[in-house]
Write a structure and sequence with these properties.
The chain is an alpha+beta fold and 161 residues long. It has four helices and four strands.
Length: 161
């Protein structure tokens, strides 16, 4: 009788171990391998345009910012730039215009000031005129946020055996 009980206990143990092993293999087969690939780096500015200043802000963008950004793209400093509007403001002091400047990677930010300075000076004519344009721009809008972000791409990864 004792042999019969021992045999039943052994069989139960083997069955339980087999069930656990089978369950583990099913869970690991369901696991999705994910590959996250970092891509470009962007500087995002969110602005609150001061009341009544939107036309002047838009004119400054067209007259000063876009020509400088285009030259920076030609020089390989920027990979792109975008402007966007906030259509779902959370409160009256929330941002309403955003600007995104994109760079190839973090290394593109090294010595950025030294590389954009000649382009800006050529556009504005002098450091004093560039400073005056910046001060005028500060009267048109308030910076709500300024963030450095890194874009990532998600894809399925090949499992490593």
């Amino acid at each position: 009788m004792k042999r019969y009980r021992i045999l039943i206990l052994v069989l139960l143990f083997v069955a339980l171990a087999g069930f656990i092993a089978l369950r583990r293999s099913q869970v690991s087969a369901q696991t999705v391998n994910v590959k996250v690939t970092p891509t470009n780096v962007s500087r995002t500015f969110l602005y609150k345009i001061n009341p009544g200043q939107r036309p002047a802000f838009d004119q400054d963008v067209m007259t000063n910012l876009i020509p400088v950004f285009e030259e920076e793209k030609k020089a390989g400093i920027l990979t792109g730039y975008q402007f966007f509007n906030n259509v779902t403001a959370d409160n009256p002091s929330d941002w309403n215009v955003g600007m995104l400047l994109s760079y190839a990677n973090y290394a593109a930010l090294d010595g950025l000031g030294d590389r954009v300075d000649p382009i800006e000076l050529k556009h504005y004519g002098s450091a004093a005129k560039r400073q005056a344009a910046g001060e005028h721009r500060n009267q048109l809008r308030t910076v709500v946020s300024n963030r450095l972000i890194r874009m990532v791409n998600y894809s399925s990864a090949t499992p490593v055996s």
